[in-house]
């Protein structure tokens, strides 16, 4: 099937290049611009979307420049998001396992303690190594790297305030806006990164808070809450909506919440924050029911504001050149990632769609393929999502609620981890796999997994959806034994027949 996909891509490129205007455009783009004068592609932003776009553009033979305001490549994800949070999630999980589970496996400690500075140093080491790795890739692929804040001054020029002082103008035939996103603020809640922190501040606390309140029950809030919960914090999650992670399949969500409550998370759903007092040594939050009602005061040492993210598109010159955005500040693009201004493109968190690093990477590759006269493609229906708690929760495709609302007749197969031999062997059997397929054709519509390593297992399902596979296709594929991934095979069997081990 991979060969078929490659053949389709090459055929599409051949068709595209037979069009006179496209062939001329591709020819113009493939040649290097005059050295030191104008790049073929200028990327504003060095995050997952931006740096991947820059490298891919260079690989396609385009003279490429990448501008990054942080002075360190990788964007929010690598520097203060995905990577450092996963480092702390892993370290805190190791401590929690040593404290609560190792004795059951015959491993005992006489003295166990958290060395928070060492934990933070390990996190920083991981980040530093990866940022330097991207710089190495830039050098390898001959991408020019400009450290500074870039602002559009024309459809072909970017003014850059350099990190080391001074300014310069970078010219490009094509400009890609890959500026990412920023923390969404809450009215009346001022983030100082000390008592009231964003996810960035939550990654750099110097002490383990006795009481942590998380505002927002999305992916980020639950992951960061998990870190500090494992290290000993009493965690309370305040959420305006009636459910945690609203985008999650309802059945999985309920089991997920029960699992978190078992880990001593406290949830205050359908609740809004109406007041904040930081005058004392800690923080006092005044909350009330979302629909109004009696107010309650919650005390905390630290409050994490995790109410979502907004596109970072203000103040970068979009208005000056007439680039259109929606009410939320997201840049409007066509199916080739071009804005309404010719030669100006946008990708990643700056445009509509899920704010995920891997989605931004796919955007970046497809965008520069279009610029180079090739045929790019991103299938947004098969972008996976993962919550990196323990167990992890991963999904791809539609939830049961979405399938039901569409009116399509469907069937559901489930398999509990309690019946999976590997999960039982490692004493980590909390969770399940759920597969939804179309009743008439058995084509898989959605897969939802709560298990150890769910973020790795989900890619089998991603590939299945990408190629229109049926649940029987997976069920009849030999899976190594014993593995947790066998639970996916058995859930697929349960959609059209019966699983063996339940």
From TrEMBL:
Binding site for NAD(+): 216-223, 239, 308
Protein's GO biological process: 2-oxoglutarate metabolic process
Gene3D superfamilies per the UniProt record, alphabetical: 3.30.390.30, FAD/NAD(P)-binding domain
Cofactor stoichiometry and binding remark: Binds 1 FAD per subunit.
EC number: 1.8.1.4
Pyridine nucleotide-disulphide oxidoreductase dimerisation domain ranges (all copies): 383-491
Protein origin, superkingdom: Eukaryota
Family of the protein in this entry: Belongs to the class-I pyridine nucleotide-disulfide oxidoreductase family.
NCBIfam families: lipoamide_DH
Protein name: Dihydrolipoyl dehydrogenase
Organism: Triticum aestivum (Wheat)
């Amino acid at each position: 099937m991979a060969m078929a996909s490659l053949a389709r891509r090459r055929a599409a490129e051949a068709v595209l290049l037979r069009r006179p205007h496209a062939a001329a455009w591709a020819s113009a783009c493939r040649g290097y611009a005059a050295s030191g004068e104008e790049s073929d592609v200028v990327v504003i932003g060095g995050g997952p979307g931006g740096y991947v776009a820059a490298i891919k553009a260079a690989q396609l033979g385009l003279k490429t420049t990448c501008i990054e305001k942080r002075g360190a490549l990788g964007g929010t994800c690598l520097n203060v998001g995905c990577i450092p949070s996963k480092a702390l999630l892993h370290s805190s999980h190791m401590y929690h396992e040593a404290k609560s589970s190792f004795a059951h496996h015959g491993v005992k400690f006489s003295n166990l303690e958290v060395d928070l500075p060492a934990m933070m140093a390990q996190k920083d080491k991981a980040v530093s190594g990866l940022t330097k790795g991207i710089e190495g890739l830039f050098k390898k692929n001959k991408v020019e790297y400009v450290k500074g804040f870039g602002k559009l001054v024309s459809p072909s020029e970017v003014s850059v305030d350099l990190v080391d002082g001074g300014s310069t103008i970078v010219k490009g035939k094509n400009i890609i806006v890959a500026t990412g996103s920023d923390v969404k603020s809450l009215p009346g809640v001022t983030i100082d990164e000390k008592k009231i922190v964003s996810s960035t501040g939550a990654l750099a606390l110097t002490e383990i808070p006795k009481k942590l309140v998380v505002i927002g029950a999305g992916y980020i809030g639950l992951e960061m809450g998990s870190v500090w919960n494992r290290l000993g914090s009493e965690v309370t999650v305040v959420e305006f909506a009636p459910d945690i992670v609203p985008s999650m399949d309802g059945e999985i969500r309920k089991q997920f919440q029960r699992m978190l409550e078992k880990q001593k998370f406290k949830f205050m759903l359908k609740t809004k924050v109406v007041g904040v007092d930081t005058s004392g040594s800690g923080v006092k939050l005044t909350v009330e029911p979302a629909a109004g009602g009696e107010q309650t005061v919650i005390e905390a040492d630290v409050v994490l504001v995790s109410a979502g993210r907004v596109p970072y598109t203000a103040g970068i010159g979009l208005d000056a050149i007439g680039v259109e955005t929606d009410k939320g500040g997201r840049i409007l693009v066509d199916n080739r990632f071009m804005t309404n201004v010719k030669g100006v493109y946008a990708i990643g968190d700056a445009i509509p769609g899920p704010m995920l690093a891997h989605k931004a990477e796919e955007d970046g590759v497809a965008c520069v393929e279009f610029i180079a006269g090739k045929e790019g493609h991103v299938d947004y229906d098969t972008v996976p999502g993962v919550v990196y708690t323990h167990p992890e929760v991963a999904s791809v495709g539609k939830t049961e609620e979405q399938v039901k609302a569409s009116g399509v007749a469907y069937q559901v197969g489930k398999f509990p981890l309690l019946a999976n031999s590997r999960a039982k062997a490692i004493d980590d059997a909390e969770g399940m796999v759920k597969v939804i397929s179309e009743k008439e054709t058995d084509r898989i519509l959605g897969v939802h997994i709560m298990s150890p390593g769910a973020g790795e297992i989900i890619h089998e399902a991603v590939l299945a959806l990408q190629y229109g596979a049926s649940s029987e296709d997976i069920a009849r594929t030999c899976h190594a034994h014993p593995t947790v991934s066998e639970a996916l095979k058995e859930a697929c069997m349960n959609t059209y027949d019966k699983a063996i081990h339940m």
